[in-house]
Amino acid sequence: MYNYTELFKQINSLKQKVKHYENLLHNLPIFEYHLGTIKVEKVKGTIQLGKLFQEEEIETEGVHKIYVDDIVIKEIESSGTLGVGIVEKSSEKQKDKNKVTPEEAEPEIKEIYEEIKNKLNIDQVPSLFQEIATKKAVLKQVWFYLKNIKGTKDFYTAIASGLDNLFNESTNDIANYDLVQDHILYEKVRKEMERQVKTFYLILHLFKLLLTGYLEKYREQMVSIEQLSIQKEIQPAEMIDKLKATYHLHNTPKSLQELEKHPNIAAYWYNDLLVPLNKAGDDNEFITKLIDYILTYFESIKDDEQSDVDLKVEEKAFLFAVMIKHMEDIPKYIYLEKVLIHLID
Question: pLDDT tens, 277-296?
Answer without folding.
Answer: 999 999 999 999 999 999 88
